[in-house]
Amino acid sequence: MEAIEVTDLRKTYGDRNAVDGVTFTVRAGETFGIVGHNGAGKTTTVECLIGLKRPDGGTIRVLGEDPARGRRTLAERIGVQLQESALPERIKVAEAMRLYASFYRRPGDWQEVMERWSLGQLARKAYGDLSGGQKQRLMLALALVGRPEVVVLDELTTGLDPISRRETWRLVRELKTSGTTVVLVSHYFDETETLCDRVAVFARGRIEAMGTPGEITAGTGTASLEEAYFALEGTDR
C-alpha cells in the first residue's frame, strides 16, 4: 500500500525549475529518504507534499488526498517537523505539548508522549533554555502528539552535536518500529543511508537515483551514498 504518490511534480520560480518532473512513491510503514545538497529541490518537494505550496504541474496524493485541496483533512493525519520550526522562547515544554494536543480532535495522551520521548524531566523548562538536541526532541514529540499516520522530518539533525544527532537517530528508528510512515529530508548522506529503507537522491530539481542505499551504491559502483551523489552529478568532491 502506498502512503504517498508523487507523479511528474513540477514547481518553478520565475525561470528556475525548483522541481522538474519528480516521481516517487512511499510505502506505508517505510522510512523514505530525500537527500541532496542545498538547492536540489528537497524542501520545495516537501512543501508541496504537505500543502504549503501548490505545484505548477503533476499530481500528489498523501493518504489518498490532494494536499493542495485537503490540507485541513490531512492536518489530522500527518505530523510535520520543518527545518525552520521554533516556539516562543518562554513557553514551557509541558505547555507546548498540551497546546499542540489541543489542535487535534483525537490526540494521543500528551503526557505519555512527553515521557516516551524523555521530556518528562524537562516539563517545566522553557523552550529557550533547552539544548539543541532537547529542542529537536520536543519538536519531534509535537509532530507526533496527534498520532499521525505519516511524519515528515525536514533537516532534523542540522546543527546538532554528534551525541544529540545519534540520539535523534534512535528516536527515528523507534518511529519505524511503531509502523509510522516517515519521510526524512536531509543533506546528510550518512543519515539517510543509516536510517532509510529507500532513498531518492535529488540534484538540480530532479531525482537522479532511487532505491535502497545498497542498490544506489551498487548502481554507481561506489561505497557510500555521498560518493554515489558525486558520481551521479559527474563532479568531484
Automatic annotation (TrEMBL):
Domain ABC transporter, chain residue ranges per copy: 4-229
GO biological process: one example: response to antibiotic
Annotated Pfam families: ABC_tran
Record localization: Cell membrane
InterPro entries in alphabetical order: AAA+_ATPase, ABC_transporter-like_ATP-bd, ABC_transporter-like_CS, ABC_transporter_ATP-binding, P-loop_NTPase
Topology of the protein relative to the lipid bilayer: Peripheral membrane protein
GO function term, MF aspect, one: ATP hydrolysis activity
Gene Ontology terms: cellular component: plasma membrane
Keywords: Antibiotic resistance, ATP-binding, Nucleotide-binding, Transport
PANTHER family the UniProt entry points to: ABC TRANSPORTER ATP-BINDING PROTEIN
Name of this protein: ABC-2 type transport system ATP-binding protein
Organism of origin: Nonomuraea pusilla
